[in-house]
Specification:
Strand order of the largest sheet: 6-7-8-3-9-10
Oligomer: single chain
Largest sheet: 6 strands, mixed
Shape: rod-shaped
Number of helices: 20
Length: about 650
Amino acid sequence: MTDPIIDLQNIRREFAAGDTIVVALDDLSLSIQPGEMVAIIGQSGSGKSTLLNILGCLDRPTSGAYRVAGKNVSELDADALAALRREHFGFIFQRYNLLGDLTAAANVEIPAVYAGLNARERRTRANALLERLGVGTRGGHRPNQLSGGQQQRVSIARALINGAEVILADEPTGALDRRSGEEVLKILKELHREGRTIIIVTHDADVAARAERIIELRDGKIVSDRRTGTAGVSEPVARTAWDSGAGWTGALGRLREASRMALVAMAAHRLRAFLTMLGIIIGIAAVSSVVALGNASQRKVLSDISSLGTNTIEVFPGKDFGDARAGKIKTLVLDDARALDRQGFIAGVTPTVSTSTTVRYRGNESNVLVNGVGESYFQVKGAKLAKGRLFDADAVRNIERQAVIDDNTRKTFFADDQTSGIGRVIWLGKVPCRIVGVIAQQQGGFGSNQNLSVYLPYTTVQAQFTGGRALRSILLRISDEISTNLAQDAVTTLLTQRHNTRDFVILNTDDIRRTITSTTQTLAFLVAAIAVISLVVGGIGVMNIMLVSVSERISEIGVRMAVGARRSDILQQFLVEATLISSIGGIAGILIAVLLGVAINVAVPGFEVSYSPFSIGAAFLTSTGIGIAFGFFPARRAAFLDPVVALSRD
């Protein structure tokens, strides 16, 4: 006699029920030879289902030894038990346990996915089995579109796809009418004649009579083990050698299956999936937009600062900004400007003086700031000429009364004048001056507020208005290849030597640039931190929904484990689902952020919001990372479910 394919010695299974211990199997011993057809019968509570669960490696005995084809089951880990279920056993359930979101053919293919078959092979084999069992035309239908008998045939095809040696049938006709039940029993007899070991758990004596051996249980013990008059043991079937699925092709196939199932689950629960994504969408859109808006704001601010002049520093009298005695310091003079102009790192120098007075044209008058500047002032400050011309070095040298007005002055006095005031004479206090040019409005520079400004040669302002030699400031443009900080140090040294003291203060536009940049970065970081909180909230939402999904799909998890899914397969399936939800939400969030940027660019001229490939990639990786991080716990919880507990949940 050959070695038994199933051998149980002194199997005991106990369950805790409150403070008491219930014994489901009481030191049961049983051997089954390859190719036998065995029926296990007994009343409810006799231990039939518990024995079947232990036989199928869905449950472990409390004590005793169980061997399958010589392997000691108690020494196997979870993945090795899954391999046994996948390679040796085929399960036929009373309630079919087909996955409602999959077609009949896809249900049949599930064990082959975990066994490592490629898509073409398993599809061919699934279709062949369905054809053999008389439901070949129903492969594309979902379970709810099939009759009970057809569903059970699909369940049998699923049990056979991996070439199982042992078929475990739990009340295979219990949910069927008599005719369908007879057809299922006929199929089981055919499988037995092929040499497969058939183990049927039933309470129906007529069903049991079809077997060649009947084992009766009562209170967890075998009370009868008899043979019927049917044919003896068949020649054992040669089990098909399958790829274990451990290679990269098998892993890739399982990943595709996990991704497909994730998409199926999301499609089946669209509203839930969308609400789960919503937190990720809002978070990613907020973070991406804040970063882009922060960068755009920085560029705009730096552009506005540049309108004050590129690489400029300005020297003022006084020991510091806000020095109350600065107005009494008269040591900053034209000779200082000339000395600075001789330095190699200086690209341009312009003295400045200023005073306030009244500007009048015909019957209109207003307060105005009169700025005395050199001919290079407009170039240093980056000013743009809107109309007319600028005064030149001859005008400065000849103390001419040539005026350049800003856009505010033009609007105040010459809004309806086609000439924009060019050639008109205005009175600055008691001094008549002819307008030669108009400066275009500049953000952060000329025309940045409602004050009126007029620009004259500084020699004219000194001679006609202030009557002194002292300067308000000296504006310097530094050569592009020179650091403004180094230039500031050199200017400080030179002027300190000339004045024998430091009675001046220097305004470095780079200092303003750095300060504003730092401030905008801080604000952007603050708002981004708030947006990150929304991402975390979205991640928690993903975790909660995935926990709900696990709870709703416990029965599905049990079926997948019963047909051979590893813990890693279950972990992967739910982790892929969480990652897909977060990734799709991330893509949607990025698209919303980009559309928002386009809308802002259209609505706000001069404000350019742009998204770099790096920021888009970082946003996508962030959303994907959230799916992995927050989906891991629910996925791990699903992977570590006990198969027999999962199968018992409806």
